[in-house]
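Side project, low priority. Logging it here so it doesn't get lost.
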Amino acid sequence: MKLLKSFIVAILLFLVNTSVSAQCTFRNTAFKSGEFLTYNLYYNWKFVWVKAGTASMSVVQTTHKGKPAYRGSLVTRGNKRVDDFFVLRDTLLCYTGTDMAPMYFRKGAREGKRYTVDEVFYNYAGGNCNVNLHYQNKHGEHRWKKHSYDDCVFDMMNIFLRARSFDPANWKKGHSVKFPICDGGGRTPAQLKYGGKVTVKADNGIKYRCLRLEYQEYEDEKWKKIVDFYITDDENHIPVRLDMFLKFGSAKAFLVNAKGTRNPITSIVK
């Protein structure tokens, strides 16, 4: 009898310890290791859109702290022409498990004369989603915070990789997927809002049938738009266009080339 009770207790503890970790996992149907996407970057300067530089996204399979993982990155690089007016240097990096559970996030952002760093370190010990948050402000000062949640939290890059495998077949315009987002400053309510289907012409001259997704964060008791994603209406969900709403203006990125995609690109409009 004691043995049976001990066995039941062990099973319950196992279920508790894996509950949050399990809900943080997801299937990946959209990308594979070796995917590399390149973009032209445009910046709005005094109501005129000017070529501002380039951006790239990549995903490779690797390990993180000894565990199988995907490393995802988004890098933006402004050119010298625009640097005279506004310096834009953003580098976003994340590690996500091959089961799509977030592992790490870093954003290094140089916008204008400001350079800041946000980091999120994840672990799932004790059946919770535990995060260690780091923020470096423009003066080089560092701030650390620790939090433990009984639900799963994400960062901008990890939720983007996860969202590429969402199935929007039955979504109607206005449908939203809500989730908590973390950066070096803490936890914020966020959502992806579906804006319907549109045709987008990329900078490679090809037109794609796309799904429009608005990434929004909840600030000052209202939803604030951060990025509009236009992703291919096929199983890859490749970002064809990104509209980024920055603290010092706005920028756009248009797809130039896509290599190493997982699935056939069936969204091309001929």
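Brief comment: The two ends are 70 Å apart (CA to CA).
Revisit when time allows.
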